[in-house]
Amino acid sequence: MLKMTQYFQLNNLPIRYKLVSLLLLIMILPSLGLGVLTSWAVDRTMDRQINQNTLQVINQVNRTLEFYLSNMQNITYLAAFNPEVKKFLAGNEKMQGIGETSDEYRIRQFLRGITTLYPEVAGILLVNYKGEYISNEMYARSTKSLTDETWYKEAVQNKGIFKIIGHPHQRNVTTHTNYKNSEVVSAVRAILNPETQEVEGVVLVDLKLRVIAEATKNVRLGKWGYLMVIDHRGENIYSPARSLIGQIRTVWFKKDSGTFSHNIHGQYLQFIYQRSPFTNWTTIGVFSNQESALEIKEIRFYVTCFVFFVCFVGLGASYYLARSLSRPIGQLISFMEKAEAGDLTSRYRENRSDEIGMLGKSFNKMLDQIQRFISLVEWKERQRWEAELRSLQEHIKPHFLYNTLDTIHWMARKRGADDVAQVVESLSKLFRIGLSKGKDMIPFSEEMEHIQSYLSIQKVRYQEKLNYTFAISKSVHDLYIVKLVLQPIVENAIYHGIKQRRGPGHIFIRAEEKDGKLIIKVQDDGIGMSQEALSSLRESLAADFTAGGKKIKGYGMMNVHARIRLTFGDVYGLEVESKEGEGTTVTIVHPIISC
To answer: Considering the chain, what is the average pLDDT of its residues?
Structure first.
């Protein structure tokens, strides 16, 4: 009991008598901890940033290489579809004409046009199954048949699939500009007869290595680091003149991308690599670990100096700071910062009778008042939101719309405009079900009739570009649902998904009972959303929809989400999944409501 009394007496002493012995520890220990933590964080952060930045550069280089090699692939397709080339490769008929009117001259002009359009191409060679060839820049070194060449046989074995050979090696082909084998990269594709699937010939395309050098030569990793490219056999496609390593072993690569370190000739090197699935080439970033180690040591030196400086200042200023600062005040400030950041549940818990205790009690009372005020404002905003939602549904007078649309419908029928009549009839159903005599809940069958009318109207507009399918369980037809939940979602699928993609698109609507809930999925195969756009939409759906003035993404979907949550609670609403280039799926979670 005596100890308790002494404790409370000490606790009620003025602040300036309490801090002299504590202030040194409070300043020195955090400084030491900050130094150790900063040193550890710098090591991890620099390694992570170096790896991420290098992978981004490598990915960009891979895209550039894939672009050029994709052009080479397209050239083989262009050559295969040329009528004169087809005739030459078939080999059954003699080339007709002489001079500038001959088939051979037109083929050469066609190949020159391609190399003019694609200046990165060093040459194109067409060889038929008889060993005859035509080229704009390339020719055989000897009379030996080109069908015996290794590259020709590899193209035949690939059965019409584009294949990248790499640097040519001991082939019986050269060019007028006499490119060295190390200055070009070759690719081949066999051209098959579409009926017999027999090889009619092979297209050989040489790519100038300078385009690969231009894509990588300006990339610098640190002071001495660089990029190099190897093929699937580990042979160099490109490496700079002054490289830290000559040959790289393929056994070092465990995955398609990653990082590893290796000791090369007594020098510790860092390797970051990524393989391109299209070219089957691996782009590798090579740099010395000593460069990053020197930067880390420099940062550690500055952190250490800072820690010693703080400790030195703390020793000299402890007495003076003890008069104006205190640990309880620091605690109270931290509580205020949490409240400022939005955490209104924090409370000052100390039971003291000094000045800090009085401030803490006043702080707690202030937070209680703020919470009560915020609750009142949220309730009023919720009421206002519900009133606005209801007012949106009262703007259109139904009888006038019904009568006008019926008049247009019969006038179109009378004049034989059946397509117009069908659209007007669908629009009439759309309004009739959408208004539903002011009802908020309608049978699910009416909601499906509403969305079928809407899709029927859109089908007239988009024709074959828009297709849709329904998979509705029989058990959900008689259930009740909040009206007008499907139309905004389907509209988004059409305008932001199907409309933007190339070719026809498809919308799939499925509804079923699952785990005691009505689950409705609207899935499209449109262009989808990027991860940034998807995250922004999810943030809008997860946000407090009563927050006035906040800019909301996807107002139509937000309206549906808000109406369901306002009616049934936060466990229901919308869920969105999307992947760029593959489509979007919106899931509506609705309670089971029987007749």
So the answer is: 77
The CATH code of domain 469-591 reads 3.30.565.10
Q: Which two tokens stand for residue 480?
A: 């009740």
Q: Where are the domains of the chain?
A: 7-325, 342-385, 469-591
Is residue 326 within 8 Å of residue 15, measured between CB atoms? Answer: yes
What backbone torsions phi and psi does residue 467 show, to the nearest 5 degrees? -130, 150
Hey, which CATH number is domain 7-325, 2.30.30.40, 3.40.50.1000, 3.30.559.30, 3.30.450.20?
3.30.450.20
Cβ atoms 454, 426 nearer than 8 A:
yes
User: How do residues 106-121 score in pLDDT, each as one tens digit?
Assistant: 888 888 888 888 888 8
CB atoms within 10 A of CB 292: 18
What is the distance between the alpha carbons of residues 157 and 175, in angstroms, rounded to a whole number? Answer: 25
**Each residue's pLDDT tens digit, 402-458:** 555 656 666 666 666 666 666 666 666 656 555 555 567 889 988 898 888 888 878
Q: Using alpha carbons, list the distances in angstroms from residue 244 to 189, 250, 513.
A: 35, 17, 64
3-state secondary structure of 511: strand
Cα separation of 145 and 149, whole Å? 8
